């Protein structure tokens, strides 16, 4: 029976010389929960994971696994006593051992320490069932270099799981795989995590992985937590531009608050008046300038009729991608072009005069000053969108 | 264990580097007459005529050898890498082989070839042809032997650079209208300058401080360089503090030169100019290719075939004075004589085991140091590389003297023991062990070790089961190389030898200085065969490739 373990991170901090890699991270992960740390490189996600594993010592704060403090003021439990499993980005399979020896390594260590009951046979049995779990039965006698990338990945996963760790840590495990394999492995990892009920921290910069694998996502930027919440919440109600762009392409439309209570209604700079969502705990006064985040599929687009009262615009770029068409549209009254994704059979040509429709309820107020749009360079997440304005 | 590691390294470094150098420095300041300390020894030594002459000789021999090595190595490298010279791959491996044979044994061969009395070349070639006999003893003999022994230090890096240079760089020059000769001067040669310069520095340093050939070829005519002068200062009357005085400036100068050399060659940026090596262009020599072949043949003849062939031949002669006829050859007598001398047998056994232990110990120190440097967060990290490479600046003679000063007396009392010999051997090979293991370690991803740790393995278990097995290749290669070098180590051994700690190279050296030529021949053949055997067995059984 697996020992259930929660993981508590309180005020975690890591400073390398002058640079702060992680700043004041607070996170309580329930037993069996799947957490994804999402952010671009250098955001501190790997450092956080390495501190949980015991490869780095925090410079401040506390980490508690299953009620035991493993890192904190005056406490440091070395990695070999933390009972966590790690899947490394490089897989870190030992090339001089067979697949079975790789997977069984943790068990042989425990047998030597007399913390494992049963002999060689029981180790072989557990290795066997671990390999079955990742669908590699029969490959135990191969060497890692004889396996494909996806198979190596599965070996790494089996090796991390066979010792029944209290927490499973995965450091961008899919980044070396091709797209198709990545999808399969994503599902496999999610299923194994659900079945085994292991508490998991998964690190990635890929929004699809984050959305697919997380019970909750932690969006990180430059060592600081931006937002923590379920995938839907981060996608639909991002707190700021960074979070919005981390989870997908987004438009930021300047607007003016018309009324705040009972419902929040704003006048977009396009002239439309719409109701929008707001992050909890945020207030703005009427007539204040704000930014509204709208996802590209949430904006309607149609050929402009002469009598239209809604916002007008001109198609700047149209790219037909089969399932959907991506548009970049210059909208009257907006400083930046708007991205729109639509499911259409016949895409409109460049230069077409269009009407742009934003319904009530699809917009989301973000916690940033309205002039942030002009002042800030595009966030890193911008590259995630499939279209770019040139 | 993990937390002990830095302390283990500090202790090792203390005894291997700090104590010897510190003792040398301290001793050089000691004034035996007054019992106090001061700089008087420096004034005393550096005004002695014989010492100044030895220093001058070292510079002169170093410079002349460097020029000689360049004259052989640069054209040879070009011929081997860039022309259709016949047998070029064979000639390449010959240059590596030169390293496998110790220079003092080559010097012995040359005594037998060109000795003024009974030298075979003199007697059977030069004199019958009406040419004047060549006297190997003295400066020109030393330069000849050192040049033929040290030229690979330039040849190998230059060949390497020529191999890796992108021919497109030259083609670019030619397409811009340069003639082939102009291209060679304006493009190829400048690109070869860094390896040429760095190789020349190594030749100079080696010739500057080498002991064996100088002692054998210069000793009989009173020609001294720094290391032989030091040995004399230690023998009669023993003025060890004077030897220390002579050693320190050399130590310092070598440190600077080696630092320079590493700066220059360490990065190797120039060898990869232009990305991946393109199609190599070969210069077609036409009829001249046989002239080129003859050049290579002569180098081979003089650097290997003649000196070692004559030793083999001598090991079958009844006596060196007798004419070379079948009647005067014997098959086993000289080899049997080796076995019948207990001192020789004992020295063999001693050499074998201390070379082995020193090899293993140096690898242990190297793995520890490299791990601390690459994986730990200890504050010692910036100090690790300099300290591990520092012994490169100790020529055998100076290391020998430092060891005598540091360890032979109180409180260690290791003088005249095999232990002091072993310790010195260990110091000698620590830098190269460190370099090899370091290079290998950089290929090993840190995550492989972390994976073991997180699965519950302690530091020592993850080292034993993961890190060290992954370093098997470099560890075995450097192990074989160390063993081969130590088994024939003369330069340090001669300073630590007291008669109670026999090792094979010193016995061999003594046979040479006692002119017991047949025994000397037999013993050198046995030593060379053992060295070659170790290399071949390692390659066959373990797949180890030894290269410099």
Structure description:
The complex is a heterodimer of chains A (390) and B (548). By secondary structure, chain A is α+β, with helices and mostly antiparallel strands. Chain A folds into 2 domains: 229 residues, Rossmann fold (3-Layer(aba) Sandwich), CATH 3.40.50; 126 residues, Nucleic acid-binding proteins (OB fold (Dihydrolipoamide Acetyltransferase, E2P), Beta Barrel). Helices cover 23% and strands 32% of the residues of chain A. Chain A contains 9 helices and 21 strands. In chain A, a hairpin with a 2-residue loop joins strand 10 and strand 11. Chain A is elongated and about 85 Å long. Chain B has 548 residues and is an all-alpha fold. Chain B folds into 2 domains: 255 residues, MetI-like fold (Orthogonal Bundle); 275 residues, MetI-like (MetI-like fold). Chain B contains 25 helices and 2 strands. Chain B has a two-stranded antiparallel ribbon. In chain B, a hairpin with a 4-residue loop joins strand 1 and strand 2. About 2% of the residues of chain B have low confidence. Chains A and B meet through strand 7 and helix 2 of A and helix 20 and helix 21 of B.
């Amino acid at each position: 029976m697996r020992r259930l373990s929660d993981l508590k991170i309180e005020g975690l901090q890591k400073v390398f010389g002058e640079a702060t890699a992680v700043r004041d991270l607070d996170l309580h992960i329930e037993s069996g929960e799947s957490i994804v740390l999402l952010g671009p490189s250098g955001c501190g996600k790997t450092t956080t994971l390495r501190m949980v594993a015991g490869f780095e010592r925090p410079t401040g704060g506390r980490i508690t696994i299953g009620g035991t403090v493993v890192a904190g003021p005056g406490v440091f439990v070395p990695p070999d006593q933390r009972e966590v499993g790690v899947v490394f980005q490089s897989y870190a399979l030992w090339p001089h051992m067979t697949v079975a020896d790789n997977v069984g390594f943790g068990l042989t260590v425990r047998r030597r320490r007399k913390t494992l009951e049963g002999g060689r046979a029981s180790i072989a049995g557990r290795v066997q069932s671990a390999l079955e779990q990742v669908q590699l039965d029969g490959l135990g006698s191969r060497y890692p270099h004889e396996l494909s990338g996806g198979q190596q990945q599965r070996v790494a996963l089996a090796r991390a799981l066979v010792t029944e760790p209290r927490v499973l840590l995965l450091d961008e495990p899919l980044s070396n795989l091709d797209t198709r394999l990545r999808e399969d492995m994503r599902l496999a990892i999610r299923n194994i995590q659900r079945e085994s009920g292991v508490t998991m921290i998964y690190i990635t910069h890929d929004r699809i992985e984050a959305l697919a694998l997380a019970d909750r996502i932690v969006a990180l930027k430059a060592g600081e937590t931006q937002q923590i919440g379920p995938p839907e919440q981060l996608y639909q109600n991002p707190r700021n531009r960074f979070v919005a762009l981390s989870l997908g392409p987004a438009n930021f439309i300047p607007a003016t608050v018309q009324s705040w209570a009972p419902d929040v209604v704003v006048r977009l700079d396009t002239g439309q008046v719409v109701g929008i969502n707001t992050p909890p705990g945020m207030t703005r006064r009427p007539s204040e300038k704000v930014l509204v985040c709208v996802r590209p599929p949430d904006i309607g687009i149609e050929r402009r009729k002469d009598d239209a009262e809604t916002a007008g615009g001109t198609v700047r770029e149209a790219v037909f991608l089969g399932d959907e068409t991506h548009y970049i549209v210059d909208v009257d009254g907006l400083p930046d072009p708007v991205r729109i994704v639509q499911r259409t059979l016949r895409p409109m040509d460049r230069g077409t005069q269009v009407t742009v429709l934003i319904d009530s309820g699809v917009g989301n107020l973000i916690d940033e000053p309205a002039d942030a749009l002009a002042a800030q360079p595009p966030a890193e997440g911008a590259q995630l969108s499939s279209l770019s304005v040139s | 264990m993990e937390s002990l590691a830095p302390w283990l390294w500090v202790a090792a470094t203390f005894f291997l580097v700090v104590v010897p150098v510190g003792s040398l420095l301290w001793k050089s300041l000691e004034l035996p007459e007054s019992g106090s300390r001061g700089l008087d020894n420096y004034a005393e030594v550096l005004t002695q005529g014989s010492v100044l002459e030895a220093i001058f000789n070292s510079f002169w021999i170093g410079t002349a050898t460097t020029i000689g090595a360049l004259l052989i190595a640069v054209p040879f490298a070009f011929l081997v890498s860039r022309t259709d010279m016949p047998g070029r791959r064979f000639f390449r491996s010959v240059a590596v082989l030169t390293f496998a044979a110790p220079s003092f044994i080559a010097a012995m061969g040359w005594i037998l070839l060109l000795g003024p009395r009974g030298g075979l070349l003199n007697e059977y070639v030069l004199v019958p042809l009406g040419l004047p006999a060549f006297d190997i003893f003295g400066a020109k003999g030393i330069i000849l032997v050192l040049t033929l022994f040290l030229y690979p230090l330039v040849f190998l890096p230059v060949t390497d650079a020529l191999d890796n240079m992108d021919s497109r760089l030259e083609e670019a020059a030619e397409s811009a209208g340069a003639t082939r000769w102009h291209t060679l001067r304006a493009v190829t040669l400048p690109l070869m300058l860094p390896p040429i310069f760095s190789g020349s520095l190594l030749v100079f340093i080696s010739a500057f401080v080498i002991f064996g050939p100088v002692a054998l070829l210069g000793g009989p005519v009173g020609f001294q360089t720094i290391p032989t002068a030091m040995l004399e200062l230690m023998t009669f009357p023993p003025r060890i503090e004077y030897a220390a005085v002579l050693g320190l400036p050399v130590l310092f100068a070598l440190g600077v030169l080696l630092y320079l050399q590493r700066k220059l060659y360490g990065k190797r940026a120039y060898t990869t100019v232009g990305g991946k090596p393109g199609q190599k262009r070969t210069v077609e020599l036409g009829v001249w290719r046989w002239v080129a072949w003859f050049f290579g043949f002569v180098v081979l003849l003089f650097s290997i075939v003649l000196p070692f062939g004559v030793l083999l031949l001598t090991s079958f002669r009844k006596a060196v004075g007798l004419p070379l006829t079948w009647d005067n050859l014997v098959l086993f007598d000289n080899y049997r004589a080796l076995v019948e001398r207990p001192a020789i047998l004992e020295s063999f056994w001693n050499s074998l085991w201390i070379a082995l232990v020193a090899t293993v110990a140096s690898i242990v120190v190297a793995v520890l140091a490299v791990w601390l440097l690459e994986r730990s967060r200890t504050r010692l990290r910036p100090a690790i590389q300099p300290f591990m490479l520092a012994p490169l600046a100790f020529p055998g003679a100076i290391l020998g003297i430092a060891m005598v000063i540091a360890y032979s007396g109180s409180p260690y009392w290791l003088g005249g023991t095999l232990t002091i010999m072993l310790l010195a051997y260990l110091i000698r090979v620590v830098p190269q062990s460190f370099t090899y293991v370091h290079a290998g370690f950089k290929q090993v991803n840190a995550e492989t070790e972390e994976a073991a740790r997180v699965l519950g393995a302690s530091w020592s278990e993850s080292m034993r089961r993961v890190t060290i097995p992954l370093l098997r290749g470099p560890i075995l290669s450097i192990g074989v190389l160390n063993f081969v070098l130590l088994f024939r180590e003369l330069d340090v051994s001669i300073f630590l030898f007291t008669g109670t700690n026999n090792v094979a190279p010193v016995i061999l050296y003594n046979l040479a200085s006692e002119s017991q030529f047949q025994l000397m021949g037999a013993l050198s053949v046995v030593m060379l065969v053992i060295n070659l055997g170790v290399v071949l067995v390692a390659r066959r059984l373990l797949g180890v490739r030894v290269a410099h």
